[in-house]
Design brief:
It contains four helices and five strands. With 111 residues, the protein is of the alpha+beta class. It has one domain. A hairpin with a 2-residue loop joins β2 and β3.
Length: 111
């Protein structure tokens, strides 16, 4: 992802990542991708089989809202270099060598 600003809020960083993913998805990229926020079971059922689902348009604004909600309930964490960003409105410094990591958290079965 290319970002030209030196500082952004985490909320804006997430929004840009999702808009980029959705644009790639909606352009019918032939490679399957794992989005930060995936359609829920109802959306998957309504969208039909996997081949057909990949051609359906995804609403970026809805995905941004779902991602913000997921972040708020610890569905994923974001690391900027080696520091965890804990608030959506925290600003992060971005340099040419900055590494941003999105870690999706999944509950363990049976524990």
């Amino acid at each position: 992802m290319q970002i030209f600003e030196e500082r952004l809020t985490l909320r804006e960083l997430i929004r840009r990542r999702i808009h980029q993913e959705v644009a790639e998805h909606n352009a019918a990229s032939p490679q399957p991708r794992r989005l930060l926020v995936e359609p829920n079971a109802t959306e998957q059922a309504l969208n039909g089989d996997r081949a057909q689902r990949s051609r359906r348009r995804v609403d970026a604004q809805r995905q941004v809202a779902l991602a913000e909600e997921a972040f708020g309930r610890n569905g994923f964490v974001v690391l900027v270099d080696d520091r965890q960003v804990t608030e959506l409105d925290d600003e992060v410094d971005l340099r040419r060598d900055t590494e941003v990591t999105f870690l999706k958290l999944v509950p363990l079965v049976g524990g």
